[in-house]
TrEMBL record:
Single GO MF descriptor: protein-disulfide reductase activity
Chief location category: membrane
Cited InterPro entries: DiS_bond_form_DsbB/BdbC, DsbB-like_sf, Uncharacterised_DsbB
GO BP term, example: protein folding
UniProt-annotated location(s): Membrane
GO cellular component: membrane
Membrane-spanning intervals of the chain: 12-33, 45-61, 66-87, 133-153
Record lineage: Bacteria, Pseudomonadati, Pseudomonadota, Alphaproteobacteria, Sphingomonadales
Full protein name: Disulfide bond formation protein B
Membrane topology, as annotated: Multi-pass membrane protein
Length: 158
């Protein structure tokens, strides 16, 4: 059982931050057609892990360990997002090629691949205030992970 208000907030954030970021990514993909590139997908995997780790803190002990592990997973996603944002802004070279969002529903695989849009890792398909989605993931994930770890480190008032 988590015993302080700050630890309970950390526990909620450990589930809430990655859930909201994944939700936003899925809405942008399926609702607005912003298909993810390979590096976008890399950022999602640690968030999925963080959701699982955060939920485990509610049922397995010690909960502070699970919350800390979730925070580290969120931090990993943020670091990947920062690297991806740097690739998008041309600060450094990426480590992957472009990807496609091919679906072979009712057509041959070759036709599906030929008709699929090319998703480039070095171009931001959308930005807000000059910050790409990968950049926002970096900002939110890193600050969120640091906040969670800070809240966990706070001591119980005497």
């Amino acid at each position: 059982m988590i015993d302080t208000p700050s630890s309970r907030l950390a526990q909620r954030l450990a589930v809430g931050i990655p859930a909201l970021l994944i939700g936003g990514a899925l809405i942008s993909q399926y609702g607005f057609g912003l298909y993810p590139c390979e590096m976008c997908m890399w950022q999602r995997y640690p968030h999925y892990a963080a959701i699982g780790l955060g939920l485990m803190s509610y049922v397995l002990g010690p909960p502070r360990l699970w919350v800390a592990l979730a925070a580290l997973a969120i931090l990993v996603s943020g670091i990947i997002g920062g690297f991806h944002a740097g690739v998008e802004y041309g600060w450094w070279q990426g480590v992957t090629d472009c990807a496609t969002a091919a679906r072979a529903e009712g057509v041959s695989a070759i036709d599906a691949i030929s008709a699929a849009p090319m998703i480039r890792c070095d171009r931001a398909p959308w930005d807000l205030l000059g910050v790409s989605l990968a950049g926002w993931n970096f900002l939110i994930s890193v600050s969120g992970a640091i906040s969670i770890l800070y809240l966990l480190a706070k001591r119980k008032p005497r």
